[in-house]
Write a structure and sequence with these properties.
Helix content: 10-25%
Oligomer: single chain
Low-confidence stretches: 145-172
Mean pLDDT: 77
Radius of gyration: 19 Å
Strand content: 35-45%
Distance between the termini: 26 Å
Shape: elongated
Number of helices: 2
Largest sheet: 5 strands, antiparallel
Amino acid sequence: KSWVSVPEQISCSTSEFTVAQSTNFFMPEVWSRRRIKSGEECEIDSLEHVEVKVSFSYSSRRGNLILLLESPAGTKSYLMTHRPWDSIKYSDPGSGIWYFSSVHFWGEKMDGTWKLTAKTDDEYSTKVTLNYWKIYFHGFKRAGNSSPGLKTPEIILTILGAFVTFIITVHW
């Protein structure tokens, strides 16, 4: 067996996208969409992971806040889900600037429209305000039209094959 390295990692980020919108009884979610295009300063055509800096505030029960990032390919990654104990421990109003990371977008392109949704699972007691967000992309640019290493489907099949082998070995 031989190992083929991927090209050197490239990292770049967007500017901050101001939203300043809040949920309410009639609108339990707010969202922001931004079109991203790779260019001369950042040419990533295969993502490895994405980081998101999010500024938000909440009227009560921080654990009711849900954040969801959607890629141009339609892949969704929950950055923050409902957390019952967090709702109890942090029941007072508050705000934060938090960084989240996701590998759900592995192998995708960064070009296209990205969507961040902030919502509450209890519109009666928790109002969420999405202040601003920023995306940090990490990945690589393939040399020419072909990858020097495994292509995404081959990677997935390799990982799935190893996982199935592991399951069969453990099960028996």
